[in-house]
Design goal:
The protein has four helices and five strands, in the order ααβββαβαβ. The chain is of the alpha/beta class. A five-stranded mixed sheet has the order 3-2-1-4-5, with helices on one face.
Length: 155
Amino acid sequence: MGAGVIKGGGGGRRGRRRGKAAAMSEINVTPFVDVMLVLLIIFMVAAPMLTVGVPVNMPNTAASALPTEQEEPLTITMTADGLLMIQNTEVADGEMIPKLQAIAAERTSKKVFLRADGAIPYERVAQVMGALNAGGFNEIGLVTDAEGPAFGGGG
């Protein structure tokens, strides 16, 4: 009868553990917010660098912009120093139509946008438009800057 019963069977361990910090059941969003802010800053700095193109001084008109399309437009650029480019690739005059036809075969639209520097003579622009028309490209859009009134503003 000298056997005694210990109540709580190991309760001493549990008591010591309660003094320490309990496991957190909440989500810590501070590291997530920090990472998102860093990514936001990176994209804000990098976004303006993604618009790469051929610099062209286009004429100003009062025409409104065309609605946007699903596919990137097929663009031909005529620079002031006489270069002819499809998108950002330089081509010779004789190679333009065969390359455009090969590109157009893989596209849904045969629409072509022509960007010409304002210093280029109209005759040269008309020659390129005629070659495009003869090559089967009948939907040609002339790209201009939309600034200023049309023909002096009617004053």
